[in-house]
Each structure stands twice: as structure tokens, then as C-alpha cells.
Design goal:
By secondary structure, the chain is mainly alpha-helical. The chain is built from seven helices and four strands. It has two domains: 63 residues, no CATH class; 61 residues. 50% of the residues lie in helices and 8% in strands. Helix 1 packs antiparallel against helix 2 and helix 4 packs parallel to helix 6. The C terminus is likely disordered.
């Protein structure tokens, strides 16, 4: 297990540098491949905005959580999914692209509510 800092990818997103964001995904993937890992999972979804850019260069299969959610949801009769997370994730197409491919719709908190949710969550940490 290798858990790189989310801050590297977020800094890249803040600067609109998708290549740096992709690198923050690819470097740990290469390290894990070098120690004979079988597959890759990145618990944070925020930086997966760069997934399409990095996918052709990945040394191992990557379990993309949004894809798994989209594939599993119809079998559970879900039609709508609520998305919460970082601003970068919620405002990105990480989930919408995967969900729409399966005929699913998504909801997410409006900006003010999302900010309030983040503040509430941080105050409880």
C-alpha cells in the first residue's frame, strides 16, 4: 500500500496543471508495479480528474471507484446518486461521465451548502 499526499494533486488542480496531477497518480503507480502489486486503487477521488490522461500510461489495472459505483448502481436499482467531496471532485466530470454512461443521474450540494458541509466536517475532525 502506498498512499501519496493528496496535496500534490490538489496543488496541480489549483493551477490547472493536469499533467502534474496525472504525474501525482502515475509516480506511485510505477512504484507499486515495481514491487509486484497486482492492481491500483487510489482512495481519494479528487485527482482522478486526470485519469483519462494517465490511463494509457498506467503499468497496472486501476480500480476506478466512480466506474465501480456506476457499474454496480443499476443492479441495485439506483437511478440517482448523491455526490459529495472536495470542490474539485464535485465540480469535475469524474462521476458524471461514468454515471451517464450507465444511464444514471447525479445530485450534488449547491456551492454554499457544499462549503458549509466542508466547514462542519472540518470542525469535527
Amino acid at each position: 500500500m502506498l498512499t501519496p499526499s493528496l496535496s500534490t494533486g490538489v496543488r496541480a488542480l489549483e493551477h490547472g496543471d493536469m499533467e502534474a496531477c496525472a504525474t501525482s497518480m502515475l509516480d506511485p503507480a510505477r512504484k507499486l508495479a515495481a514491487v509486484s502489486a497486482d492492481y491500483l486503487i487510489r482512495p481519494d477521488k479528487t485527482i482522478q480528474q486526470a485519469f483519462e490522461q494517465v490511463a494509457p500510461r498506467l503499468p497496472l489495472p486501476w480500480l476506478h471507484i466512480a466506474e465501480v459505483v456506476a457499474e454496480e448502481s443499476p443492479s441495485r436499482r439506483f437511478q440517482w446518486l448523491g455526490i459529495s467531496g472536495t470542490r474539485w471532485l464535485v465540480e469535475s466530470d469524474v462521476y458524471p461521465r461514468k454515471l451517464e454512461a450507465h444511464g444514471l443521474r447525479r445530485l450534488h450540494p449547491p456551492g454554499a451548502d457544499r462549503i458549509r458541509m466542508g466547514q462542519t466536517r472540518q470542525s469535527h475532525l
